Amino acid sequence: MSPIKNVAVVGAAGALGAPILKAIVDSGKFNVTVITRPASTSTFASSVNVVKADYTSVDSLTSALKGQDAVVSAVGMEGLLGQSILIDAAIAAGVKRILPSEFGSDLSHPKTAVQPVFGYKIATRKHLEDKIAAGADITYTYVVNGGFLDWGLDHSFLLDWKSPEPKLFNGGEFEFSSTTLASVGQAVVGVLDHPEETKNRSVYVQDIAISQKKLLELARKVAPEKKWTPVTVSLDEQEKWANGKLAEGDYSAPVMYTYLNVVIFQDGYGSRMKKTDNELLGIKGKTEADVEAIFKELIAKN
């Protein structure tokens, strides 16, 4: 496959998109275009070409993607369903590689793929792979990075350290794969740098495999003056609660986040990676000392 030089990023102003864009720009290896919605007021580095397009229009996105070798989608939850339009536009524009907004759990794992929280992502995969099977001249890479390490701690998702009674799911013993946003950005650069080796497959990256218990231990080391009394929560009970809510038509964030907890914090869902593409993609990983540094920064500002 020919080298990738021209790269478009969609969703570049978001919590995930911004560090991905930064990594691509900082690499100095690509001509970078950001595609924004017409009403967007986001600003970007002067080296970045900004093109406005209607995300709901194949024609508008096709025009915006002309001349691009690759497109990286970093849209958030609200934009996941619309990725089929982006895929169709990328194919029409002659884009050779697309990275859909995966960036999380391993959706090739059968127990993970059926979780309601991933419905839009699974639909995106099916749309893309069906198009390729029908002859579309485009390739893909899915980036699997487990939970976001720094974001997940900042937002009390991996461990609710802002609460005096943080929840430890199933006792917090399970070690899950986790990756910082900056390393996810580096993984994207690695994919774009190695198009043949990453063609039409998932790539797996992690900075560290760590448990909730270990996270709490590191938090206590950083802030010994704080008093935490963890509470053990059953994921089976949590899943039963979420299933009941879903049956009532409740698709709210608490319900969807419960399904993420079910996938991430226990064995059987592929959340602890058996192999990674760290070496290929240039991911060096993190140590417990790095996690302590994240806690120090977060605790200092809270």
What topology does this entry show?
Blueprint: E1 6-10, H1 17-27, E2 31-36, E3 49-52, H2 58-65, E4 70-73, H3 83-93, E5 97-99, H4 110-113, H5 119-133, E6 139-144, E7 147-148, H6 149-154, E8 167-169, E9 176-179, H7 181-193, E10 201-204, E11 208-210, H8 212-222, E12 231-233, H9 235-247, H10 253-264, H11 278-281, H12 288-300
Parallel strand pairs: 1-2, 1-4, 2-3, 4-5, 5-6, 6-10, 7-9, 8-12
Antiparallel strand pairs: 9-11
Helix pairs in contact: 1-7, 2-3, 3-5, 8-12, 9-10
Structure description:
The protein is of the alpha/beta class. The chain has helices spanning 17-27, 58-65, 83-93, 110-113, 119-133, 149-154, 181-193, 212-222, 235-247, 253-264, 278-281, 288-300; strands at 6-10, 31-36, 49-52, 70-73, 97-99, 139-144, 147-148, 167-169, 176-179, 201-204, 208-210, 231-233. The protein contains 12 helices and 12 strands. The strands form 3 sheets. It has a 7-stranded parallel beta sheet with strand order 3-2-1-4-5-6-10, with helices on both faces. The chain starts with 5 loop residues before the first strand and ends with a helix. The mean pLDDT is 96.
Question: In a few lines, what is going on in this structure?
Answer:
With 302 residues, this protein is an alpha/beta fold.
Keywords:
302 residues; alpha/beta; single chain; 7-stranded parallel beta sheet; 3-stranded mixed beta sheet; 40% helix; 12 helices
